[in-house]
Write a structure and sequence with these properties.
Order of helices and strands: EEEEHHHEHEHEHEHEHEEHHHEE
Number of domains: 2
CATH superfamily of the largest domain: NAD(P)-binding Rossmann-like Domain
Strand content: 15-25%
CATH topology of the largest domain: Rossmann fold
Structural class: alpha/beta
Distance between the termini: 45 Å
Number of strands: 13
CATH class of the largest domain: Alpha Beta
Largest sheet: 8 strands, mixed
Helix content: 25-40%
CATH architecture of the largest domain: 3-Layer(aba) Sandwich
Number of helices: 11
Strand order of the largest sheet: 8-7-6-9-10-11-12-13
């Protein structure tokens, strides 16, 4: 077993502190030999060797705490040679925030197959983050061309791309930041499950819904995803608010229909009325708002691909830009009748 590389060790006169992100483990009392024990644990050791370096009883208690936190792994140390020279080589230890098996998680990213519907200020930036994280296979779906007014927020395009299909321009951009990236461009406006069946393979690891038209697109994608067992993730930006999630995984009982039913139930009559009347996308967009939401959505997608879970699995995050406050909806439970 070994200690995750992302776990930092801090020595003070009174205690030893182990930290990973916001989580903290304090070790006080008599500590002769603890430094040597942690060094061995960092390199990989056994319970017996750890007990020989420190006190056996204390070593056993420490291991129990580290296992509960998910800070030790039986996975062999990742060879840096596996990832050297790639854009993602410095992120592998960060994946320890999601899973103790960081090397395996990075390899899962390398083999992930992702569909992106809508290649604008959300979808293009999500694809940018995923490609930089190591994902190398994308199905890029959009029927639009790059326009001048896109450039305030769609940072994967430049003036030299004006007039080009977004599927082609984004494919070139991803190829420039990710060696060997594979892309399939699909120039189509998705409106039916038949459009999806003709555009995407059934065995994708996840589909990102980042287009704002037609209004029924999330429900259309959800019906197709339920029939294929494909996980989905959605993002959107409104006036002063950004939304990401839910990530819906049919294999875990996730259901977009039940999520929407629960969400709508929580609205007031006036809020439902406004939502029903306001089906058109906002006529203006702001680069920082799109980028923040796309980055948070990409962060959750990477966590989901690495570990099978994330903060927006089955629920939605909302960022109020005016107050800089993030709230999460309650996780929905699928109540759809089962069929035999």
């Amino acid at each position: 077993m070994r200690l995750l590389p992302a776990v930092a060790v801090h020595e003070t006169p009174d205690e030893t502190l182990l930290t990973l992100g916001p989580r903290l483990l304090r070790i006080g009392g008599a500590r002769p030999g603890l430094g040597e024990a942690l060094l061995r644990l960092r390199e990989g050791t056994t319970r017996e060797e750890l007990g020989a370096a420190w006190r056996p009883g204390a070593a056993t208690a420490l291991l129990a705490q580290l296992r509960e936190l998910g800070w030790v792994t039986a996975e062999p140390a990742v060879s840096t040679a596996d990832f050297t020279g790639e854009a993602y080589e410095r992120q592998v230890d960060y994946l320890g925030l999601f899973t103790p098996d960081t090397g395996a998680a990075q390899h899962r990213l390398l083999t992930a197959r992702i569909g992106v519907i809508g290649l604008g200020g959300l979808g293009g930036i999500v694809a940018q983050h995923l490609a930089a994280a190591g994902v190398g296979r994308f199905w890029l779906v959009d029927d639009d061309r790059v326009a001048l007014h896109n450039l305030n927020r769609q940072f994967t395009y430049t003036r030299s791309d004006l007039g080009r299909p977004k599927t082609e321009a984004l494919a070139d951009y991803l190829g420039a930041i990710r060696t060997g990236v594979e892309t399939v461009g699909v120039r189509k406006r998705i409106g039916t499950t038949g459009d999806l069946a003709a555009s995407l393979p059934r065995d994708l690891d996840l589909v990102v819904v980042a287009a704002d038209t037609p209004p029924e697109l999330p429900a259309v994608v959800a019906r197709w995803a339920a029939s294929t067992g494909t996980p989905t993730a959605i993002g959107a930006v409104g006036v002063g608010v950004g939304l990401w999630g839910p990530v819906v995984d049919p294999a875990r009982g996730g259901c977009w229909t039940c999520f929407e039913r629960a969400r709508r139930t929580g609205l007031t009559d006036d809020e439902r009325d406004v939502e029903d009347r306001s089906t058109d996308p906002a006529p203006f967009s702001f680069g920082p708002a799109n980028t923040v939401v796309a980055a948070m959505l990409a962060h959750d997608i990477v966590e989901f691909l690495c570990s099978g879970t994330c903060p927006t699995l089955g629920r939605r995050a909302a960022l109020d830009f005016t107050r800089q406050k993030i709230t999460h909806s309650e996780e929905s439970t699928c109540t759809c009748p089962t069929t035999s």
